[in-house]
Amino acid sequence: MDSTTTAAGAGTTDLELVERARQGDTAAFGELASRYERRVYRMAKNITQNDEDAEDVLQEAFLKAYSHLGSFQGQSKFYTWLVRIAVNEALMKLRKRKTDRTVSLDESIETDEDPIAREIAVWDDTPELRFGQQELRNILDDAIQSLKPIYRTVFTLRDVEELSTEETAEALGLSIAAVKSRLLRARLELREKLTRIFKRKGDQILGYM
Amino acid sequence: MVTCKDFLKELSDFLDESTDPSMRVELESHISRCPNCWVIFDTTKKTIQVYKGMEAKELPTEVHSRLMAALERKISTGTCSNSAAASAESGSTTDPQTKH
């Protein structure tokens, strides 16, 4: 797709691009794809943890979005609508991977357990500045990937893609309470993992409760 | 009186500023007196910040190219929602030769 043929620049809103795409301006949809392909791919990669699956999800999401552009009501943001399609694709990929027995997002395991926080250590104000961009990215990716699917999926949507609790619940077919409980656990598990890397130099990690 | 355990349960809502005002006052009071819970609060807040601050990296060039090629094919065949066609278009991501 040749996005250079569109007059759509950075100042054009998503809704204007959607409207143009509906009227047959194919370059407008190319611009939407260019705007969001990185985030959709990152989200898909976080959930599926697999390059090939993430690429399939990326393509399926945009192809379906294009096919169903007529059903986009404009009540939510285009990206929220798109990400809902992409999440469904990513979850289908996950469920196809029978080898991962923890793949079900419907299971209620552990969501009622008390949240955990075991380690106490103060971080620097901006610990991320101690690392290069790529090194930091690897640290954060590794930490997310060590979470179970039910936690990393909720965390990815809420805290990486910045969907609201309600949007996340809707995208995943979960209750608000389940989203909140999983998000808390995901945040605390990540905090625990990152504390080992980001704690202030020279400080000891102390036990909590 | 809010305990450390209560604090931990409310932490996400507290960070998202979605607790009701009276609970918020109690939680603020708790972390002003409990250094451990203050550290948990502060480091969890930083955990979220560091993820939010991370930009999505550029797509690998070939992934971008294959996406654009798939869209171009889709658009050239019209906007029908033929899922079989869509599936066929995206089902061979391992073979770049077929993706244009």
List the defining traits of the structure above.
heterodimer, A: 209 residues, mainly alpha, Rna Polymerase Sigma Factor, Chain: A, Arc Repressor Mutant, subunit A, 2 domains, two-stranded antiparallel sheet, 8 helices, elongated, disordered N terminus, B: 100 residues, 67% helix, disordered C terminus
> How much is the radius of gyration of chain A in Å?
19 Å
CATH class of the largest domain in chain A: Mainly Alpha
Tally of strands of chain A: 2
Main β-sheet of chain A, in a few words?
2 strands, antiparallel
Low-confidence stretches of chain A: 2-6, 107-111
CATH superfamily of the largest domain in chain A: RNA polymerase sigma factor, region 2, helix turn helix motif
What order do the helices and strands of chain A follow? HHHHEHHHHE
Main sheet specs of chain B: none
Q: What is the overall pLDDT average of chain B? A: 80
Beginning-to-end CA distance, first to last residue of chain B: 64 Å
Multimerization status? heterodimer
Distance between the termini of chain A: 56 Å
Helix and strand composition category of chain B: mainly alpha
The count of β-strands of chain B is 0
Low-confidence stretches of chain B are 80-100
Q: What share of residues of chain B is helical?
A: 55-70%
Count up the domains of chain A: 2
Residue share in β-strands of chain B: under 5%
